[in-house]
């Protein structure tokens, strides 16, 4: 095998803070903002008086932006390059945080959803740049290891986020839920207005932090990497290729990301509400997403130490997708804390799927890498669709039985790890 297809012919040079540290800080921000949704779902369900389906519009508004903005993000990156594109993405996220202030002041659910969509738009741009960037900052065969390191940054932030926001927004909310049942319409509205206002200060802090990080990124020594340069082997394999749609393994990778993000978001963002449906107080349930993300961190550590030395990226993906099937079945067959525990443990099962999909799907794309990355980012829209389907099924069946939708998702992920990542490849790149 020659040089990885996504490398420039010259080694990446930098001065000052290493690029991997800067990207690590960005992944921390991704995690913090993304996993706030797990608290926003039960919080806004109470504050805006929603049912299950309506409350999961939180994830829909946030993740659908990836579908809408992924291709435009690829165009933006062609104009701005990676570094300016990342700074712009952080600025857009800050604007989304700003929208939360009038949303909270008026207790308008549609404004909350708009703020989430704008934040997701900024994240789509950031993810389109940062995921391939960390993939190409080293050998292709160890890309999953580097993405696992980024995953730890992401999930540590994600583990902290629901605790921090939950401490503010869900404080004494179990008592409040009982109290408002006996209140008059006017008193109830006033109490819910106060509850809605709890997010104002946290989101002002988030907005300021995003602006500061955007300025730092724009002034950093983060190098540009030319993903349009192909080595001779990849260029020969891609002779005659005129469209990104001529890479079946990438198309299957997009579907795999769609289903994977769907089950990842289901595990992390529904577990608090699911715990409450199992009779567990929200004051306790608010910690469940943190347990899910701790499981992901454990899995990432396995990836760092074991890939590719002891296990290939594809084999790691096989093993952990099977684990997802087993944990889901156990959660469906048990009740109470045991059932909730196995939904939380899906964080462990999900951990090494994302790091493996990226290098497997992007291998051999050469000059098509940026557009391929954009399509993979579109797949993140699975986080919009799957929770919404789950919420509808939870209203029709029950929050527990709705988890059946995860089984076919994990089966397809397993298929991609076994065969899908090699479909249609003219040059097989070692996984």
TrEMBL record:
InterPro entries: Glc/Gal_transptr_bac, MFS, MFS_dom, MFS_trans_sf, MFS_TsgA-like. The keyword Transmembrane helix applies. Coiled coil: none annotated. One of its GO terms (biological process) is D-glucose transmembrane transport. It is found in: Cell inner membrane. Pfam families: MFS_1 (PF07690). Keywords: Cell membrane, Membrane, Transmembrane, Transmembrane helix. The chain crosses the membrane at residues 20-44, 56-75, 87-104, 111-129, 200-217, 250-267, 287-307, 319-337, 343-362, 374-390, 402-421. Belongs to the major facilitator superfamily. FHS transporter (TC 2.A.1.7) family. This is N-acetyl glucosamine transporter, NagP.
């Amino acid at each position: 095998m020659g040089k990885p297809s996504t490398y420039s012919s010259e080694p990446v040079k930098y001065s000052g803070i290493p690029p991997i540290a800067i990207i690590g800080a960005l992944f921390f921000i991704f995690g913090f903002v993304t996993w706030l949704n797990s608290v926003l779902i039960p919080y806004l369900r109470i504050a805006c008086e929603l049912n299950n389906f309506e409350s999961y519009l939180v994830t829909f508004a946030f993740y659908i932006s990836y579908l809408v903005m992924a291709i435009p993000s690829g165009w933006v990156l062609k104009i701005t390059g990676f570094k300016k594109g990342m700074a712009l993405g952080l600025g857009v996220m800050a604007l989304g945080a700003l929208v939360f202030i009038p949303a909270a002041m008026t207790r308008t659910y549609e404004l909350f959803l708009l703020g989430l969509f704008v934040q997701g738009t900024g994240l789509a741009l950031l993810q389109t740049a940062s995921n391939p960037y960390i993939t190409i900052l080293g050998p292709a065969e160890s890309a999953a290891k580097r993405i696992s390191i980024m995953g730890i940054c992401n999930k540590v932030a994600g583990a902290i986020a629901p605790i921090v926001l939950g401490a503010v927004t869900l404080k004494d909310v179990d008592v409040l839920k009982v109290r408002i049942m006996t209140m008059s319409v006017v008193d109830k509205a006033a109490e819910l207005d106060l509850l809605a206002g709890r997010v104002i200060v946290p989101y002002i802090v988030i907005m300021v932090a995003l602006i500061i990080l955007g300025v730092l990124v724009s002034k950093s020594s983060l190098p540009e990497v030319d993903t349009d340069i192909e080595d001779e082997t990849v260029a020969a394999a891609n002779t005659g290729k005129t469209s990104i749609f001529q890479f079946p393994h990438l198309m299957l990778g997009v579907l795999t990301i769609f289903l994977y993000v769907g089950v990842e978001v289901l595990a992390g963002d529904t577990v608090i509400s699911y715990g409450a449906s199992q009779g567990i107080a929200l004051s306790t349930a608010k910690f469940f997403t943190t347990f899910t993300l701790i499981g992901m961190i454990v899995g990432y550590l396995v990836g760092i130490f074991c890939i590719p030395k002891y296990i290939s990226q594809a084999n790691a993906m096989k093993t952990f997708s099977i684990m997802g099937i087993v944990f889901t079945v156990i959660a469906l067959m048990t009740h109470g804390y045991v059932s909730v525990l196995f939904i939380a443990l899906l964080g462990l099962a999900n951990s090494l799927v994302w790091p493996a999909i990226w290098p497997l799907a992007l291998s051999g794309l050469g000059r098509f890498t940026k557009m391929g990355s954009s399509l993979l980012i579109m797949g993140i829209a699975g986080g919009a669709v799957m929770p919404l389907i789950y919420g509808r099924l939870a209203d029709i069946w029950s929050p527990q039985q709705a988890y059946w939708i995860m089984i076919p998702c994990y089966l397809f992920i397993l298929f991609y790890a076994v065969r899908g990542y090699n479909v249609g490849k003219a040059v097989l790149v070692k996984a």
